[in-house]
Amino acid sequence: MSSNAPRHTALDALHRSLGATMTDFAGWDMPLRYGSERDEHVAVRTKAGLFDLSHMGEITVTGPGAAALLNHALVGNIATVGTGRARYTMICQEDGGILDDLIVYRLAEHEYMVVANASNAQVVLDALTERAAGFDAEVRDDRDAYALIAVQGPESPGILKAVTDADLDGLKYYAGLPGTVAGVPALIARTGYTGEDGFELFVAPADAEKVWQALTDAGTPAGLVPCGLSCRDTLRLEAGMPLYGHELTTSLTPFDAGLGRVVKFEKDGDFVGRAALEAAASRAEQNPPRVLVGLIAEGRRVPRAGYPVVAGGQVIGEVTSGAPSPTLGKPIAMAYVDAAHAAPGTAGVGVDIRGSHEPYEVVALPFYKRQK
Amino acid sequence: MSNPQQLRYSKEHEWLSDAEDGVRTVGITEFAANALGDVVYAQLPAVGDTVTAGEACGELESTKSVSDLYSPVNGEVVAANQDVVDDPALVNSDPFEGGWLFKVRVADEPEDLMSADEYTAFTAG
Questions:
Q1: Which residues of chain B neighbour A332 with C-beta distances below 8 Å?
Q2: What residue intervals traverse the membrane (chain A) (predicted)?
Q3: Confidence (pLDDT) at A3
Q4: Closest alpha carbon within chain A to B86
């Protein structure tokens, strides 16, 4: 694949007609924002937002051995996911390093859809294909088979109900069902990356404009606006959700990232990374690694990924993501810090912002949790 | 977007007003403000600071990035816009008027400042 020609989603012309500012993201030309990213963020928190997420990488795994393959290839217990349900999980290297974080949807008894981050889709596809050897299962690259449209925010159930007959009230968080949206087939999932209630709709690329338009028409009176990747990042940051390449990398195991709960040692059979992850788990228990914490600024300067976290003149950690938080009205960050400084309220912690040490409050994640 | 005819422009996307008693007002253009996104923090030069054309004299921080603020001319800062410090979004909503950044008593200015038409062509390319 050529690295200098960005790929365009099925909604590209529509984004341009809406005046979107576009950005290169993992080889895709994606909407960064349409107007003010702060207004888009606030719309998702209070009303609804519409996202094109077609850059995400869909991989379908089918066959009688599909569950066994995924249990071997991923760290979660995928065999226990019920049909119509979804699970957040990870794929690791043999040494326990995180290759990607994933959502796996069980579409049928012998059919799963794995959704990878755009930046890792090829790596995940290659790893699954390689790990499928000896299993009665087929791994299929379905990246071009789907456009992905998300409608997120408290008004999203009402908006989606206006364009589908699917039983949304019966659709729980982290569940997905096939249905019809705006007259076209869609996989309707109650998932998202914003900290709000919402839906992700996997549709054929040829149908994407129709679905986008129907949701726009149904949602605009309720306050729905198109939203770009900029506000998606601040929404997930406020919700304390990790982003691959920032909080998650191949040099960290799930235990180092505070996400050891996704690793299911009790499942049947061996899985890639088991031995290294067992060692990482006991290491984390005996000698706590750096801890992922939240930081809230007392001032107005914004911490960015890579900035050192300091205390008493010593570097005690590193910022992985930072942004001004529209909800808190202050800059916030996620950072890995030494365990000794990780307790909420720890005094004397700062961030080195281009040479000046700005005071920060250590808090537990997430920064924002919606009222249910 | 249209760039006011009475202003001159730098390649770093600052605008410079006509002189009033040797003092010119500096801001960033609408093109620059749009490229930055929502400005959330402005660090402006202080009154009395000496600024040098093409050198950083402050910073503008937006949701996604932080950018150095450059002076388009050499001189001494005689005012900084406290309204922008208090409400940085003014840079986005009113870049050529209420969102001005600082005023400078000009000692010397570079030759390569652009007219509005030249700057419009510069940003179109």
A1: none
A2: none
A3: 58
A4: A300
